[in-house]
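Supplementary notes for students who missed Thursday's class. We covered one full example, reproduced here. Read the sequence, then the structure, then the short commentary at the end.
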Amino acid sequence: MSRRPVRAESPQDTGGLVVVGDRVLTLPNLISFVRLLGVPLFLYLFLVVRADVPALVVLAVGGTTDWVDGWVARRLGQVSRLGELLDPFADRLYILATLLAFTAREVVPWQFTAALLARELLLLGSLAVLRRHGYGPPPVHYVGKTATFLLLAAFPVLLLAASVTSVATAASAIGWGLAWWGLVFYWVAGAMYVLQAGRLVRSARARSGGGAA
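Structure (token representation):
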């Protein structure tokens, strides 16, 4: 008789000092919700009213506060399962929304957007396979966090380059340097997630085969 594979454990579940709770109404989760509200506000300012400077401010605040919710959660002992989902979701939503908006207004070329979207599709496929075998999403790796930080730092600088002529040359160089390194790390993290998913699936199949014997 086959056995259902055990879910992958996160660092918080394996004897660490951080306890993961089920609370919803916490300060870190509130920060994450506010960050999420910044996405439609940015899209409205950037695409509808074409107010680039306010859009730049919203994007910069949303990107630079990426670390705040996690830091507050650990500092106050308010790490929660909802927060573990909200934080990467907010990051990914900021990246995807900004990419699509930038592509629509030709701030970034469509090839760059396609490269990032292809990585997202690869990750979605891996998550679907994991879920089919009874596993949840793998813990966020520091390489993925680095990639997210680089991309979220790059986007406001690229928008600054497109909006302010006097600093366009310097801002463009800095922004694209961050963006290309972010893309590289994004794909490295994606490859690591796929390899991790492969190991978990092979382990699940081995246990299933052993249980049936």
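Commentary. The chain has seven helices and no strands. Residues 12 and 18 are 6 Å apart (CA to CA). If anything here is unclear, bring it to office hours.
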